[in-house]
Amino acid sequence: MFHPTPTAQPLPFDHMYSGMGARENAGAIPLSDAAVVQFDQLLHEIHADAPRVNADRLQQLAAWLLKLPTEQAREVIESRLQSVQELRALLEDEDWDADEAAHARIGKLLAYIDREDDLIADRIPVLGQLDDVLLIELAWPAFAEEAEDYRDFTAYRYAHHPAGRADERRAAWVRERLDEVALWQHAMWVREQHYAPWNLPRGLFRVS
User: Fold this and answer.
1) How are the residues of the chain apportioned to helix, strand and coil, as percentages rounded to the nearest 5?
2) How far does CA 194 lie from the centroid of its chain?
3) In tens digits, what is the pLDDT along the chain, a chain of 208 residues?
4) Residue 51 DSSP class
5) Angle CA(133)–CA(64)–CA(108) in degrees, nearest 5?
6) The pTM is what?
7) CA quadruple 158, 3, 116, 79: dihedral sign
8) C-alpha span between 132 and 58 (Å, rounded)
9) How far apart, in whole angstroms, are the C-alpha atoms of residue 170 and residue 114?
């Protein structure tokens, strides 16, 4: 099943082996078993269907990141941290009416990312924010639809400058999108219609 990710290139976490053989990568980062369990619990509070996180898979992911060229490793981190800025903007935008559950999920994610004393200390070179970006990556399906809608709304607001109160600006965006859907459905219906059945005899409309 496809799960949306915050960037076009997903982290290879799903391909990391979670068995005892992964212990060869142990030591890439210092990890507390209790802290890993807490991290996994937080992840599943935010997104119940996320894959499980354990120390073995984290160590393998850390080893993978360390093997990347420095600029590429930095891009892996920065691109995901940048994606979460959309969620910050979404929460602060008075024009957007995310529901209470969405606010709570995003709030938990941001509270973790803003900590320095989390699963991996932020001061560790290269790997310090690996836990932050992994949380963003694995929890993203819980936010993906909301973030996509918000991105579309902000583009509409920038292009059309709708007037009125916050709810009226949102309503204008919804109406426009519904009109677009209706137009698309009508176009598809027209394409599927045949002005004459396809299997009529060839000579039926011959002009003599």
Assistant:
1) 65, 0, 35
2) 41
3) 346 888 888 888 877 765 544 445 556 788 889 999 999 999 999 999 999 999 999 999 999 999 999 999 999 999 999 989 989 999 999 999 888 999 999 999 999 999 888 899 888 888 999 999 999 999 999 999 999 999 999 999 999 998 889 888 988 888 888 867 766 665 666 666 655 555 555 544 444 4
4) P
5) 15
6) 0.78
7) negative
8) 12
9) 30
